[in-house]
Automatic annotation (TrEMBL):
Protein name (Swiss-Prot/TrEMBL): leucine--tRNA ligase
Family: Belongs to the class-I aminoacyl-tRNA synthetase family.
Originating species: Dimorphilus gyrociliatus
Origin: domain of life: Eukaryota
Amino acid sequence: ENAGPQEYTLIKMKVCKPYPKKLKIFEGREVCLVAGTLRPETMYGQTNCWLHPTIKYVAIATTSNEIFICTRRCARNLSHQGFTEKWGKYEILGEFSGSDLLGTALKAPLTSYDKIYALPMMTIKENKGSGVVTSVPSDSPDDFAALRDLKNKKDLREKYGLGDEMVLPFEPIPIINIPELGNLAAIKVCEKLKIKSQNDTDKLVLAKDEVYKKGFYEGVLLVGKYKSELVQNAKKKVQSELYESKEAVKYME
Ligand code: A2H
């Protein structure tokens, strides 16, 4: 782990109404899966949300009168960052396995898809961020590999009770151009390195290294208010706007 605190942009992925069975207890309230990202400027390219099927998630109420769903570890950290009624305390209003929440329809900020779905990713870590990850397959090799696994494997979709309509229509969105890597950099590099699945760990490390470095230093946004600006200049501006519009909150760990 790195020294010093890390700032995550915690993206509110709002559960669409009518709520699925497991979330009916929260009817009448706003419920969000909250996803920790280091790349707020990529939110234009979200195609789905990732949950780990066997990780436990909890629901807590925030002072903004919303329900946040995240790992217990994240809930505790949030309670020490002023998100709950009493400092350092959080009441667990519900507890779920990732698999309970798969297939949940969500409304996420900035993406051009009106509605996206919670899907399974096996490489999510329990002890990082919120345990909820937003998926940007255009610019994240991990996200591209995991989405492609689900698209290629009908048995995997069936195992988690996912309809084809939750997976198959969602194509990576070109949102950033990187010189030499083009406007779908993660796909280009996954193909170059012949990455077969989300479990191709060693090759994915190489892919991520290349895509993230070049994306940050040389990437140019292709969409949104900061179209044509360098990623490194636009990042803070997109982040501030998400905080201001209350579509995201700042989360440290
Ligand atoms: B990033 P760091 Cl487009 N387990 O968001 C596994 N991965 C997690 C996670 C967890 N519990 N929590 C967050 N993440 C992912 C977007 C993105 C991200 C892009 C490109 C690079 C990138 C879309 N996914 O991260 O270990 C989230 O994915 C590059 C590192 O704390 C989060 O940002 O440094 C990032 O990893 C946080 O990783």
